[in-house]
Amino acid sequence: MSGVTDKTLEKHATSFGKLTFLDISNCLHITCRGLEILGNNCKSLTSLKRNMPPLDWEEAEKPLPAKVNNGEAMVIADTMAALCHLELCYGRFGDLGFDALVTKCENLIHLDILGAVCVQLDGDLLDKCERLAEFRGPWDDSYSEDDGDDNEAAVLSSDSDSDQ
């Protein structure tokens, strides 16, 4: 976890003008206010990673409306419309925030919302995702063979070699 806060961002905001890529994953002390500061000062930003930790069990047990917070998604949609690549894994936003993102971020080609369980993709939202070159939805548990552990493959290979 990071110690970066909204105040830190506010203090250094004028130096963010030329940033094109930003990873603020797991920065739990950055709120909508901090995202707005970034959006208003990072006009060259084309790639944002804002992946958060999964919901804990107590939070996950709450009814869906109690978990939804569209604030961050709305701020990103309103202030970072030039984004091409966006990762919001385990975000707390729902369909309203998701719709704002895919509607206002017209340059978006890659969107990853794995674990964003409040997004239901109701109505025409799934259709809007079809214009994206890459979309990873809330429940997408697929992975490529490249995602596997190379050490496991090496162990399997050496085990089969010793059988010969």
UniProtKB/TrEMBL annotation:
PANTHER family in alphabetical order: F-BOX DOMAIN CONTAINING PROTEIN, EXPRESSED, F-BOX DOMAIN-CONTAINING PROTEIN
Compositional bias annotation for Acidic residues: 142-152
Protein name: Uncharacterized protein
Gene3D superfamilies the record matches: Ribonuclease Inhibitor
Highest taxon in the source lineage: Eukaryota
Residue ranges of the region described as Disordered: 138-164
